Amino acid sequence: MGKVAVLKLGAGNFEEGFPVTLRLSEDTPLHLILEVDGQLPPCPGVWDYYCQWQTGYNQIAKNLRLGAPTGQVVRVSYTEPADTYRQTALNLRKQLNQWLNSGYSGFQAVRDRLLIHLNPQEEIRFIIQTQDLKLWRIPWHLWDLIEAYPHAEVAVSSPQYEKPENFDKPRKKYVKILAILGNRTGIDVSADRQVLQQLRHAKVTFLAEPQRSQLHLLRDESWDILFFAGHSQKGKLKINQQDEITIGELKSTLVRAVSNGLQLAIFNSCDGLELARDIADLKIPQTIVMREPVPDLLAQEFLKYLLNFYSHGDSLYSSVRESRERLREFHELETYIPGVSWLPVIYQNPAIVPPTWEQFHGVSTATASKSSHKHQWRWSWYLPTSIFFLLVIYTILRSLLDPNANTNYHSFMKNGYEAVDIAQDKKNKLYFNNAFINFRKALEIRPIDPYAWYGLVSTGLNLLQQRQEAIPITKNTVQPPIPKVTLSPQPQPKALPKPNVSSSLKPTLEIKPSLQQLQKLLSTKQWKAADLETNQVLKRLAGYSGNKNIPPSTIGKIPCQGLNTINQLWLKSTPQPRFGYSIQRSIWESESVKANYKSFVDRVGWRRGNTYMTFNGLTFAPQAPLGHLPWSGWMMRPDKRIREGFGLFMQHLKQCKI
Question: Is residue 527 part of a domain?
Answer without folding.
Answer: yes
